[in-house]
């Protein structure tokens, strides 16, 4: 107990106040008041002079007779066996029962109970004084603030956040209604900007806002919280489970705030309480003399400020992180919208961070896969055309681009077909753009020019023209050029003489047939 509280209790006891009334006024347990009352009345303590009364000599009581020598316990002969049972976690009753049944123990249970209690007794634990260099460490924790009126008119205690610099003892205090992971991270950021600098390490216990999975050797830190600390050049140093002494500085700061700044107060709004905490810190807490270091907190903070890490140019961009499964289309559904996660395979698990205006997708190793603008339209698909799988309904522009490479008349024919038939005409566009596999581009362009003069241009007309042109070309290759004269060709006069000789015979045969 602090000396000032002990002196106050002793003074009130001397005035004759009731012990329960003293406990209520001082704010301590009634058992503590009774213990101090017994210590004050113990023999050998000097009594002083009561106010307004003469001092009378007080006769010392007669000494008590010496205590008899302690007799050995009946359980001493079973000491090793009992110690082994205690290591197994057994209690005194189970040990007593086994002593009776297995070893023929004839004494009472209280004998075993007293012996076990002596074996379990430990010497007071000794703690080291933890110090830190300027700017090296800050300690954080949540406590309870003073009763504050809510919007429904009822009073409730908000969460009291305190960050205390280990070297100087300078603290940042703020009360909030919500104590989720993002609020926890935002309070750290606000504290850093209030101190005008950050620290190297932030010591915290294993509360769920900061530590996702407690572990003795490698605790898992909340991703948003870890990202905020990394943005400000700090690292989270989680204390061991059930080891609050590691962050005793902030524990004392919370107790000091609750017992001095907020004790017995009520506030009409949470803003009013925060204004009071800021005023109390500036007027009373910061100028005080530190209890252990015996120096002013403000003076030590002035020494520590140059050692704080410089703040970044911009504040942290907060996000919400979650895990999602990639569907068969290569998309993940986030807040009723869909975003491409390619090259992540369908069925794989990816991590999604949702910012105010962006969405980032990471693979299992933490590598950034995609960054998309955030959509606020339910059912919207955010996917580039290059990410889409082949789909004929989205091939029009590509096919027209291929037709344009064949020539302007081919492009005009493709547009005419699509305008008249719509998506159904894309099959004809596929056929036209595949003609260069068989025919020359110049022939295709010339044929398209002839087709465009028709009243109903079509792919079939284009193909027929190309087929006829190809057939004529092939026939010319197979048939040699005709000649009027040559070494193997008779003269035309010989053919005339031959027909003059043969013609009368044909005429006579025709007359006979009649």
Report on the architecture of this protein:
- Helices cover 41% and strands 14% of the residues.
- It is of the alpha+beta class.
- The strands form 5 sheets. A 5-stranded mixed β-sheet has the order 5-4-1-6-9, with helices on both faces.
- Helix 2 packs across helix 3 (30-40) and helix 13 (408-421) packs antiparallel against helix 14 (426-433).
- The chain is elongated and about 180 Å long.
Number of separate strands: 16
The number of helical segments is: 17
Distance between the termini: 155 Å
- Largest sheet: spatial strand order: 5-4-1-6-9
Compute the CA-based radius of gyration: 49 Å
Please give the oligomerization state of what you see.
single chain
Mass-distribution shape:
elongated
List keywords for this structure.
alpha+beta, 514 residues, single chain, 17 helices, 4-stranded antiparallel sheet, 5-stranded mixed sheet
In short:
By secondary structure, this protein is an alpha+beta fold.
Please render the helix and strand layout as text:
Elements lengths: L2 H12 L4 H8 L3 H11 L38 H9 L4 H12 L5 H12 L16 E8 L3 E2 L5 E2 L2 E7 L5 E6 L4 H15 L5 E4 L6 E3 L6 E2 L1 H9 L3 E4 L9 H14 L8 H16 L11 H8 L15 E6 L5 E4 L2 E4 L8 E6 L3 E5 L5 E6 L7 E2 L13 H11 L1 H14 L4 H8 L7 H11 L7 H20 L13 H22 L1
Parallel strand pairs: 1-6, 6-9, 12-16
Antiparallel strand pairs: 1-4, 2-3, 4-5, 7-8, 10-13, 11-12, 13-14, 14-15
Helix pairs in contact: 1-2, 1-3, 2-3, 5-6, 7-8, 12-13, 12-14, 13-14, 13-15, 14-16, 15-16
